What we know:
12 helices, single chain, binds magnesium ion, alpha+beta, 8-stranded antiparallel β-sheet, binds adenosine-5'-triphosphate, Actin, Chain A, domain 4, 27% strand, globular, Substrate Binding Domain Of DNAk, Chain A, domain 1, Nucleotidyltransferase, domain 5, disordered N terminus
Amino acid sequence: MRRPAGASSGRAALPAGAGTGAALRVPRRAAATGRAAQAGRRRRGGLDGRRATGGASRGARGDRRGRRGGRTMSGSGAPAVGVDFGTTGSLVAWGRPVAGARGIEPTAIPVPQDGRDAAADVLPTLLFFPATRKVLIGEAAREQLGLRPDRVVRRLKQLLGRFPRVGVAGRAYDTTKLAAAVLQRLRRAAETRLGGRIREAVLTVPASFDVHRRRALLDAAAAAGFAVGPRTLLDEPVAALAAFLHGRAATPRAAGEPDFSAERLVLVLDVGGGTSDACVARVRPDGATLAVELRALSRFTPVGGDDFDALVARRLAEGFCARAGLDPAVLPRGDRLLFEHRMRLTAERVKRDVSRNADDGSEPAAEVRQLFLHGEHHLVERIDRARYAEWVAPLLADPRGRAAGDAPGVLDAPWDALGKAGVAPADVDLVLLAGGMALVPAVRDAVARLFGRAPRLVPDPLRAVVAGAVLQHAALLGGRADLRPAGAIAAESIGVRTAGGGFRRLIGAGTPLPARVVERGAFAVPPGRGCYVRIPVVEGEDPRPDRHRLLATLALRFPGRAAEGDRLSLEAALDENKLLELRGFLDRDPAVFVAARLRLDEPAGGTPTTPGEDR
Ligand SMILES: Nc1ncnc2c1ncn2[C@@H]1O[C@H](COP(=O)(O)OP(=O)(O)OP(=O)(O)O)[C@@H](O)[C@H]1O
Ligand SMILES: [Mg+2]
């Protein structure tokens, strides 16, 4: 059996003809040496529900800064480090120096896994809370998914910045601290590998993550010992593009490879476990480099592999329950959760099996065999690619035929990015696919139908994002010249809702960042003393303002006595990490600032509990 490009373990095969681009090099021995793995285990911090790991520099021993022989990784001598905190898997990588024009090669760093002797280059973003022992992160937690799903926190990335806490077996855990524990594991793996203190890194994030999610990730990064700078965050599809372009300016073009000798319009779609994320960019030659100019980013599209698995699990369960005469609703809660989770795990295996390329050219199919799943009843099914594609079709619906209010699908992301860039599918010269779901033929086929031609897989689609983070960090450190990274842009228009239900745009989608905007006289101040004005802050492009997403409420406390006709101005600043700051001041006297607080509106539904359903 030939393993598909970027399969989850070992060295990933490149798609035919993919001679350049940053295929992340997975070390020949993915396992850390026994000593390194042990050191990683010794340094690991605990997490007991109230006590978070982290602290600015805990765990770092000395500051050797990777300057030792063979360890100079960028122009400044500091290592270029990238982190991809994923919904299903998290990675850390560094820029290994190589001879020639490429300069560095993004290389995965093995991460110690609880309960395993060997480290692996992907740390499953899963935390298992045993009744008596310390939290287990990674593979050991994955093993518990089918046994104790109520004690496993999954989809942490989707909880972060949206839910302050998650409930596990009767205790509430701070989601930022949990994310910090995962990030700290990655940082320490980098320290073990690179032999020095690691504080600087670029962290990737879905392009459409809002201010709260970004802030929470940065808080988690700081708690994990990372230094947070003005360009710490990088949009995931932009990272994947950087990985694809790496080395292309410097290397002669191989047959079948895209030609960047003139300007090209590129769309990148990253479909991971939890999100679909797209960018449209212009790539043009600029001397010995390729310059990337971002045109548009997609809106928040929370659709990924988990949704495919949930849908297929439902189909499998419905069929089985009908045949077995089982109503899962009558099962005790624990049994029902276990049943649902096993179905989900089965669905994930089905997805991988139908995505595999058979050596003999035969059509791959998944054989499901779960004997005595319920009493005397077995679940035995054969699911081929066509049947799988039919089952997941609702998640791959063509956005051109969809009504507002329909559940989101993967293709909403590229469609939204195209709309914002003002281009049609036919205008795009190159469609690139990244993320684990790029390996699923049904996803590739749906993208091909939207664009009228087959998309191209980035080399090593599961690791392209972290590779791009390394390249961005190297560029920020001044160490690379064959690619000029894109400047950040706003993904969505951000503004305030006005009294009549209208929308006042402060920062438009596509605005180059950092941006600062002053909107004069935006609001009338109600007469009186010490009044309080509450303004909804929203984002979105929908012509109907009531369909914009509520980001937060801006609470403005007016300090003194307002005169009849006094008006407030608003100042909005969006930095390159896309953190938003808003403040108000009195129009007639700009020196009088009005205290402003951006309050996160708690999502409805309270604190989620495991097994994690965050929607
Ligand atoms: N070989 C494979 N065949 C099919 N699907 C796969 C394969 N490998 C991974 N996947 C799927 O890809 C998804 C994970 O992709 P990826 O690692 O890019 O996501 P992530 O980065 O963790 O999530 P996100 O980017 O949404 O935060 C999972 O749904 C997984 O089941
Ligand atoms: Mg991802």
